[in-house]
Design goal:
It is elongated and about 75 Å long. It has 2 domains: 151 residues, Jelly Rolls (Sandwich), CATH 2.60.120.10; 117 residues, Orthogonal Bundle (Arc Repressor Mutant, subunit A), CATH 1.10.10.60. The protein contains 10 helices and 10 strands. The chain is 40% helix and 20% strand.
Length: 287
């Protein structure tokens, strides 16, 4: 709701964590971005927590106070310190220990699935001018009394995660999405071409690794999975609306044979070609 003020609650003088259930309406955007859990964290001065190896990537968005991260094989090397308006990044499978400084700590935490591109991120401290905004968004998601649609909040939070991890600003996101959409439009218009990740990356002026990370962060799937989806959706549409043979359609969408296309439809869309043929096929025009 425009104009609604979102406040960040303060804690009593005890360590406290407040999580947000991802079952909230509208959290699909967060799940797509790879979020496993998120919430708010308050720690008293000198508190120690989070010892051990985490299976997920931790983003710790600092609102106030300071947190020291001891990370490494024995959680004693690579000492890092994050303060207000910074994001402490702890990659998966890294032994760690977090310790608050001389003052109380208020932060937002987000755990992300250990999948690319997150698996390639190393421990570090990133600038996060929007840390207070992220904490406010999480507070609003956790508070059912806030009169703002959860799906809108979740989309904002998802974009904040993406911009932080990809080193983008919020203003970069529309341009980045538009650049990739132009590429996907080209793929959709010629699904029969032998598209490969390296060639797609060259078309948008990125390295293969950077291209893979950005596509996965923005779309929730690797580049070639998106190409496959476009091919199969085109094939399914042709099966429903034409009398072309399966082999002909396979050739149109870049599959080596009708058998290969049939297997792909069954594996990825959960349907067989004959099931699609039955859908309004009697009214289908000749190609």
């Amino acid at each position: 709701m425009p104009g609604t003020r979102i406040s960040i609650r303060r804690t009593a003088q005890v360590d406290r964590v407040r999580g947000v259930p991802l079952s909230h309406p509208g959290c699909a955007a967060l799940i797509t971005a790879g979020v496993r859990s998120l919430g708010l964290d308050w720690r008293m001065p000198g508190s120690t927590w989070g010892e051990g190896v985490s299976p997920s990537l931790l983003l710790f968005w600092m609102v106030s106070g300071k947190v020291a991260l001891a990370a490494g094989p024995a959680a004693s090397t690579d000492q890092l310190t994050a303060g207000p308006d910074q994001c402490l990044v702890v990659p998966p499978t890294t032994a760690k220990r977090l310790t608050s400084g001389a003052g109380p700590v208020h932060a937002a935490y987000i755990h992300l699935s250990p999948r690319a591109p997150w698996t390639e991120i190393t421990a570090g401290v990133l600038p996060a001018a929007r840390a207070r905004h992220v904490a406010a968004l999480i507070t609003a998601l956790a508070d059912e009394t806030v009169g703002i649609a959860n799906d809108h909040l979740a989309r904002q939070l998802s974009e904040a995660i993406i911009t932080c991890c990809l080193g983008l600003t919020a203003a970069d996101l529309p341009r980045e999405r538009a650049r990739l959409q132009t590429l996907w439009d080209e793929v959709a218009s010629a699904p029969e071409r032998p598209w490969q990740a390296a060639g797609l990356a060259r078309r948008v002026g990125m390295s293969v690794g950077n291209f893979h990370r950005r596509v996965l962060a923005l779309h929730g799937r690797p580049p070639m999975a998106l190409v496959r989806q476009m091919r199969l959706e085109r094939a399914a549409d042709r099966l429903r609306t034409s009398h072309a043979t399966l082999a002909e359609i396979a050739d149109e969408v870049g599959y080596a044979s009708g058998f290969a296309l049939s297997n792909a439809l069954r594996q990825h869309l959960g349907v067989r070609p004959r099931q699609l043929r039955r859908s309004d096929h009697s009214a289908a025009p000749r190609p």
